[in-house]
Specification:
10 helices; alpha+beta; 3-stranded antiparallel β-sheet; 17% strand; 5-stranded mixed β-sheet; 309 residues; globular
């Protein structure tokens, strides 16, 4: 159970994250943003990812012990948990099965929890800072890409990069591959995982968007990262959630060691959405956070209109 950062960014804020070590320009609002402020946002984002990776490293150091904890977690409870501190959530789960560990093992796990709690406190502070930067400086307007010297290099809404190649299946077992994009004028690809509440909450909106896109010859495709490599239990769980949320659009998976798999597993903020044209190119930067709000939906619609025109 890797710790995944779920960042809900206000006003449809889009940060320049790419996979596999790629690099893009930084997105700013041309009518209000300054290079200094954007660098502050980038620094905060870097700190968030660094701390999240530190949490993963803490778990990995005693992976065998934590696997015992994770294997005893009730999926429904985890999905509906309102606990915002990951360390506190782990503590609750550990306290249910203390009889499965020795005193020394409990000491190690509780030390891990204390450290993760401290990291979570730092993450909450950083999230507040990120929101402050977003609300204070990035309030919409035209997005432009800026290089490390603060020079505008191109319209951020039209930058493109190929979606990594893949061959896999949908959740019903039908074969799919990268050619799926050529069948649509535009494809909205949504990355999510089953234990991510904001991901699940936006599924009905994505289904409505899929119906609207059909009229433009487009489609929504979901990629639940829990299902990568064809994990049967996770596929069943994802299908159950999709059915409960009334989301009937296609969800697919592929091998985690494929190019597309490396892209998916490199994503650290969920949900994440990208738009892909009929040539298989990702248009614009990834959209981080749920799109089930007016601002984000407007951003998505503007991009769709630009691709389909």
């Amino acid at each position: 159970m890797k710790k995944l950062v779920v960042i809900l960014l206000s006003s449809g804020l889009i940060l320049g994250l790419t996979a596999c070590g790629g690099s893009t320009g930084k997105n700013v609002a041309a009518n209000t943003e300054t290079t200094e402020t954007q660098l502050d946002a980038d620094d905060i984002q870097a700190q968030i990812l660094e701390l999240s990776n530190k949490e993963n490293d803490i778990i990995a150091e005693h992976q065998d012990l934590w696997d015992t904890v994770f294997n005893n977690v009730d999926k429904e409870e985890a999905k509906n948990s309102t606990e915002s501190n990951y360390g506190a959530f782990l503590e609750t789960q550990l306290n249910k099965i203390t009889d499965q560990f020795t005193d020394d093992e409990l000491s190690l796990l509780n030390a891990d929890i204390d450290e993760i709690k401290r990291i979570e406190d730092q993450l909450f502070d950083l999230a507040d800072q990120m929101e402050s930067v977003g609300n204070g400086s990035i309030d919409g307007g035209m997005s432009v890409a800026v290089d490390e010297n603060g020079n505008i290099i191109e319209d951020a809404s039209t930058t493109s990069t190929p979606f990594p190649a893949f061959a896999g299946k949908d959740l019903d077992g039908n074969d799919v591959d990268s050619s799926i994009f050529s069948q649509n004028t535009v494809t909205l690809v949504n990355f999510w995982f089953s234990g991510c509440s904001p991901c699940v909450e936006e599924l009905p909106t994505l289904n409505e968007l899929n119906e609207a896109l059909k009229e433009k010859g487009g489609a929504v495709i979901g990629i639940n990262t829990d299902t990568l490599d064809g994990n049967a239990d996770m596929i069943d769980e994802a299908k159950k959630i999709l059915e409960e949320q009334g989301a009937a659009y296609q969800n697919i998976y592929f091998d985690s060691d494929s190019d597309a798999g490396e892209y998916a597993t490199s994503i650290m903020a969920f949900p994440t959405t990208v738009l892909v044209d009929s040539n298989g190119n990702i248009i614009g930067e990834p959209i981080l956070g749920g799109i089930n709000n007016e601002e984000s939906l407007a951003e998505v619609q503007n991009r769709i209109d630009a691709i389909c025109k």
